[in-house]
Every structure is written in structure tokens, then in C-alpha cells.
Amino acid sequence: MSLTARERESQARYYRAHREEKLERSRRYREAHREERREQGKRHYALNREEKLERCRQYREAHLDEQRERVRVGSSARHARRFHAPGAGLSYEQWLEILHAALGLCAYCGERGRLGIDHIVPLSKGGEHDASNVAATCLRCNRSKKDRDLLMWMAQRMRPRDVVRG
């Protein structure tokens, strides 16, 4: 039996008017039947284990890139805490904006590939851990720069044949 638009609207009004009461009633029920609900959940999982695991696997596959980036931001935050770095921090959303602006290219060498977080002014040298001090760089550039100042690193990277003599 399906409801008419009028009946649905009536139910919606009732719910809005009595929302807090319904929420409180649900909370009391959950508290009173905690063990029963837990056992019911275990039985449901046992009956549907394979389907649940398959859904989890599909979700992980579909969101693998997102998870990698979230882990990258979290690792960067732990690194910053280890150095007691100042700054507002770097959120996942800010990192995505930086990646989007980079267009998949390393900020230092311009190579296309998987990009990581590099602090332009190294945390060990007093750099801040926030979006204004972060660049999206390839692994090769990030590892070779280490904790050096950006300009010093770039100068050391240049070979004599790259220098124009006048």
C-alpha cells in the first residue's frame, strides 16, 4: 500500500513536530535492548559475512586513491608533530586543492606521476605545516631535496652544463 502525497506530507509534519520525542524513545530502546541488538547484529553478520566482505572490498577498491591521499596527509601531520612545527596544519581538502592546481606535475621538475607532500621550508628548519608551505612533488625530487632549503637544493641540482656563461 503506497501513501498519497497528502499522507506523506502529514507524516512528515508529524515527524518534524515530534522529532525529539521519537529520538528519545529510540535512544531509550537501544539502551534497554543493547545486548539483544548486539546478538542480532552478530547473527546477521554470520549469515551475511561473504556479502559484507565483498561490499567492503569493492568500497576499498573504489576509494583506494582517496584513502592513499588521506594517509599521506595524516603521515605529514605526524611528521609535523614530531618536529613541533608551527602552522595551522594541512587538511585533506587543502591537499586536494594543491594536487588539483599541480595538474599531476611535480612542482620542482615538472614530471608527471604520483605526487607527494613536500614542505618547501623544511619542518626541521622551522617551516610551518600548512598549505602555504606545501608543494606537490614527485618522489625523486622529494627524496633528493631532503631537509635542504629549496633554493640551495636547486642550486646544487644544476650541473655546470646547465649554467649559462656570459
Structure overview:
The protein is mostly helical and 166 residues long. The chain folds into two domains: 5-61, no CATH class; 63-162, Herpes Virus-1 (2-Layer Sandwich), CATH 3.30.40.220. Helix content is 60%, strand content 6%. It has eight helices and two strands, in the order ααααααββαα. It has a two-stranded antiparallel ribbon with strand order 1-2. The radius of gyration is 27 Å and the shape is elongated.
Shape type? elongated
Major sheet strand order: 1-2
CATH fold call of the largest domain = Herpes Virus-1
Q: How many distinct folded domains?
A: 2
| CA(first)-CA(last) distance | 88 Å
- Order of SSEs, N→C? HHHHHHEEHH
Portion in beta strands: 5-15%
Tell how many strands the DSSP assignment holds. 2
Alpha-beta content class:
mainly alpha
Assigned CATH class of the largest domain: Alpha Beta
Task: Break the fold down into its secondary structure elements and pairings.
Blueprint: H1 5-17, H2 19-32, H3 34-47, H4 49-62, H5 64-82, H6 92-102, E1 115-119, E2 134-138, H7 139-145, H8 150-157
Antiparallel strand pairs: 1-2
Describe the structure concisely.
This protein is mainly alpha-helical and 166 residues long. The chain contains eight helices and two strands; from the N terminus they run H-H-H-H-H-H-E-E-H-H. The longest helix is centred in the middle third of the chain and has 19 residues, at 64-82.
Main attributes?
single chain; 166 residues; mainly alpha; 2 domains; 2 strands
